Every structure is written in C-alpha cells, then in structure tokens.
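Many introductory courses stop at the sequence. We go one step further.
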Amino acid sequence: IFANPNNKQKLIEYIEMNHSLLIELSKEAHPSIVKRGGGVKDIKIRDLNKFLIVDVLMDTQEAMGANMMNTVLEALASHLTQSTGESVLMAILSNHNPESLVSANVKINPNSLKGGMNTAKKIALSSELAHIDPYRCATHNKGIMNGIDAVVLASGNDTRAVNAGIYTYHSNRPFTHWKLEDDFLHGEITIPLTIGTVGGAISIHPKAKLFKKISHYENKHNLMEMIASIGLIQNFAALYALNTDGIQKGHMSLHAKNILLSINCPEEILEQATRELLNSKTINTETAKAIVKKLMP
C-alpha cells in the first residue's frame, strides 16, 4: 500500500510493465508453495485517490496462508521501494477475500415441517425481514455464525479472520436467503472463507486432529462446503424454532441441563431431572439441588 506516492502514474506504469517480473519475485520469496501448485497468480492495482494499493492474489493450496502471503508481500514491497523510490506505507494481507467464495443450498418439502406450508411461508417472511431490518439482520447472522464459528474453531482455523471476512463481504446484509418456489422452501448461503487444512495449530493441535478424524473432510474445499452447510442448517433451525415452538423452548432446556451439570447431577437421573426442572416455577440452582436430592436413590 502506497500513500501519497510522489509520482503515482510512473509507479502504476512500472507495476504494469513488470507484472511478470513481480510474479517471478513472489515465487522466489516462497518457492515451496509453488512446488505444491500454488503461489501468486495475479497482481492488480487499485487507485484510491491518495492511496495506491497493489493487490496480490495467491493460491495458498491447503494452507490458510497468512504467513506465506505476508512473506511475499514484504518481498515485493522491498523490490518496489528499491526500483521506484516510492515509500511503502504497509505490506499486509487482507481478511477480505471475495475471490474465495463457497455456497450451499437446500430444498425442503413443507410437508416435512411442523405446521406445513404455513411454517414454510413464515420462514420465507422471516428471511425477507432480515433483508430490510438491520436489527433482525444482526441476530439472523449471529445465529448463522454460531454454527460456522463452532466448525472453524474445532478445525483449528482462525475464527476472527473468518468473521472479519464474512461480515465485510456481506456488509450488514443477511448471509442466507429463504424463499418459496414451486411449492418448496429453498435456502441458500454464500460466504467467503479463508481457511486451511494444514499448517499452524491445525497440524499439531489434538482437538483439530480429532475433528479431522471425525468429519472425514478430504481437503480445504470439502471443509469450506461443510462450514457453509452448517451455517445454513443452523439458520434453518433457528428460523424453524422461531416460527413454531419459539426459541426459548430449546434455550431453556439447555439452560436447565447446564444448571444440573454444574451441581454434578448424576448422569442416570439427568434427563428426568431436566424435565422436572423445566416444569418447576423457578429454574435456578436451588431448585435443581432439591430435585436431584429427591431423585437420588
């Protein structure tokens, strides 16, 4: 990124005329990714008035690629400074990655839903509301991220980078869309994902290794599809609950069980204790202790 370059046009001309050279220099900066079939594929220029930004597009293969990208960017920054005399403001990757999109979609027969077509219509209306009301949009998207963040974290990837990319790409718009078409409920999601299946904590963290064993994903594209699908499913589950039983039924059941677990409720009476706690007038630790005491043999 260049700020207030002395001769912007001359700088642009140098980058355009030496496009192939710059790509070769990037390969020399990180040759191992090139051997695996990746590396810098293109270099573009964006002119933002006082700022001139050089976008470097890299195929990072199975890695998330933050370190390799920054290594290449700093090498190119050094070359451009020496060759043009212009000062570089910074050389850093962006978590906004609209080049790396993944989509998932689903078609649901309303007859399979509680409430049938009426529920399907409500889900479609709820989706429409999220597109026009920022207050609903925020919570709509938060629910989607409940699912996405869980998978990203379990796989050993960077939840903050993924969140930054998705929220920037959608810019206060809902990540999903639901509509009725041909008597079916159709749902879809498209999100940018910058993730990896190798490198960093992914290759060494025991829980990331366990997640890979359980999920059976084969490569980064499989994992991206899985994450998008979980986000869409999570969104459906929330909209379905909101338009049928209400969100609190599920939330309070989980809350009651968590209270019981916090007081070391024995597993053999947990389900019965949960039911009794939910049916009590007050759901708190004191009531939970009384229920456990009553149910204990």
